[in-house]
Each structure stands twice: as C-alpha cells, then as structure tokens.
Design goal:
Elements lengths: L2 H25 L45 E7 L2 E6 L2 E5 L1 H16 L23 E5 L5 E7 L3 E7 L1 H12 L2
Antiparallel strand pairs: 1-2, 2-3, 4-5, 5-6
Length: 176
C-alpha cells in the first residue's frame, strides 16, 4: 500500500470517527451511553448515525473516545527505520521514504495555511540540526537567490532571498 493509500485510509477512518462522535454528541441528551467505535459494527448492522448503538456482545468493546474529545493521533517507532501512526484504530507503518513524503506533503499544506508559524522560537523547542548541510543555489533575473539546503530530517528545504536579505544573511553569518 503506497503512502497516498495509507493517508486515504487514515483520512477515511478519521472522517468516520468524527461523524460518529458528532452523532453521539447530538444524541447525548437522549442517551448517556457512549457510541461504539466504528470498527465494532457488525456487517449486518448499519451504522447508527442518528443515535447510540446497542453494544455488540460478540466483540470486545474498545475504549470509546470521549463525546467531545477529538480523535487522537498516536505515533510510535517500532523499529529504527519505520514509524507507525494510528488514528481511530487504523495503523499505518511508514518507511523512511514514506516519512519523507509525508513531511513534504505536510510542509506544503502548513505553508499554505492562513495562521502563520510563530515569529520567535518557543522556549524548550526541540530540533535536530544538520551540520554543514549540502547546499545548492540559483540566481533569478530579478536578483533574488534561491538557496536549497538538505536537512537530515526535513530533506531539501528551499529558501528565496532578495538581494538585501542576502547582504543581511552574509552580515549575520560573518558577525563576530
């Protein structure tokens, strides 16, 4: 299963969980019994989106999420070159290539969001620095410069600098 399929499966599980949680929250005034998780539904029983489901004795009940709690993402590292992500009981195992693809996709999505990254570095922020990264540069006709640096965790990270910013960067890097 490729990364797109794995992400699709996680999104589908998350959508199902959110719909179930919303339906449970809507019917919580009628019933105090929490809804079962989507994977507990028997094939003969349609999902009850309008109210709480009756418990199914043939399946051991999983711990249901709280009525108003969002689903959680659980990330684990079962081996050195793999990571597992679980949402709503669905687990996806990613290889180093899959992790790189996920980081790239999430980075592109995050960069397009209207809420920007914080302008300052938060106290206690953890990071993995890459010493003497491999770099590539390119000059544009308008004088801007592209600098692409290879980070050990993030992969190739591109930055574009105006001519004035290039001068500021040089000054910062050579300041004693």
């Amino acid at each position: 299963m490729n990364l797109q399929d794995q992400l699709g499966a996680l999104e589908s599980s998350l959508d199902t969980l959110l719909r179930t949680a919303a339906a449970s929250a809507g019917s919580s005034a009628e019933s105090t019994e929490p809804a079962s998780s989507p994977k507990e539904v028997s094939p003969d029983e349609p999902p009850a989106l309008g109210g709480a489901r009756q418990p199914d004795d043939s399946v051991a009940p999983a711990e249901p999420p709280g009525l108003n709690e969002p689903p959680t993402l659980v990330v684990s590292r079962p081996e050195r070159d793999a990571v597992e992500m679980t949402i709503a009981g669905k687990t996806v195992k990613l290889s180093p290539e899959g992790v790189s693809e996920l980081i790239e996709e999430l980075s592109n999505v995050r960069a397009s969001m209207s809420v920007e990254q914080p302008t300052g570095i938060a106290p206690g922020w953890r990071f993995a620095a890459t010493k003497n990264p491999v770099m590539a540069t390119q000059k544009y006709a308008n004088g801007d410069r592209l600098l692409v640096m290879r980070h050990g965790g993030h992969g190739w990270v591109p930055f574009t600098f105006s001519p004035n910013m290039v001068i500021e960067l040089y000054a910062m890097l050579t300041k004693k």
